[in-house]
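Fold it.
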Amino acid sequence: MEGVENIAPLTDSTPSQVPNTTSASSSNNKNVPPTQTATEQSTASQKKNTEGSSSTTNNGSSTSPPQLKWVTIEPQRKKYQVAIASASLPGEKIEEKKQHAFDLLKELPELVSFTNLSINGTTYIGASFLSLVSAEAACKLAVSQDNPAKFEPVPEIRNRKAAPDSLFLVKIRDIPLDIDKPIFSAFLKQYGEIDSIKFHLQDLYYVAHVTYKTPAAKEKLGYAWQITYQKNSFRFTHRDLSIEEIALRNKYTLKLTNLPKNTWPLDLSAILDRTKAKSCFIPKKPYSETYQRSRFAIVNFATQQDLIKPNKKRIHLITMRSSGLILLLAFVLNVVPPTTFTANAKNTMDKFLDKIKTPASK
């Protein structure tokens, strides 16, 4: 019948929906979309909200950069150093002095190091604190009721120069590595009371830095350039020498060669006295060559006049009776180094004498 719409019956297999109406006579109904159920509308709404939320999140993450934070690393904490002269502490050995100093400071907080120090040639017992309060407290502690000595800040000690006449510093070189250090240290006490002595390795030898408590050692050493120890001799300098005076001790040097095997500086004492030599050094061979003494000596003189007399060319013929050798020491102007001959090298000696045309003096 016209004007009557067919309505499909609702069944369990057919979802609930609003029926679409079509009218053959109405052209507007052709563009109307089909309606949705309430369940579909709710699902679509939730999906839209979810997509919108996700889209908002993605847009926010793409436009906002990640937040970066600076991390501050604290530098190493400053340390406050204090020290006390070992001579001010009781005890005969350095271990005893160190133990006494540690007993004074062990109750103070933030003590991080405790060791020996050498400042301006003097031995100190030093300690380091992380707290300025602890360092200042350490400087208030006296050694004992009878000994008012106290710790002092290390910067103040380094900036404080020793009084000119309070200490006497000596630097001794050419000391062989096989020397008996305790015996040699006891030998050095004959020149005065020693405040400290340090041995430092330098090439094939030791260099000893000796600090005497009084300048009396200078008077006993006098104007000597070397210290004679048993059969050996060691060159030395001291604090009171100027740079020019130290350079002078290496300026006028001769080399004495062809020495007999196992020759000591003491064996050359007659030659050294006759030629007015100030020091004599016989080098050691490397350990690869058994660390024995070489067969030559380095001889130092104080002045050019002692080395050679001006306007005179002279030759000293010296007999070493102990070794049965005759050494010809040539001190000739402008001839460096001098030549040394043995008695068996007569042909070479004659050629040398003919060359310089100077008669040998006996």
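DSSP finds ten helices and 14 strands in the chain.
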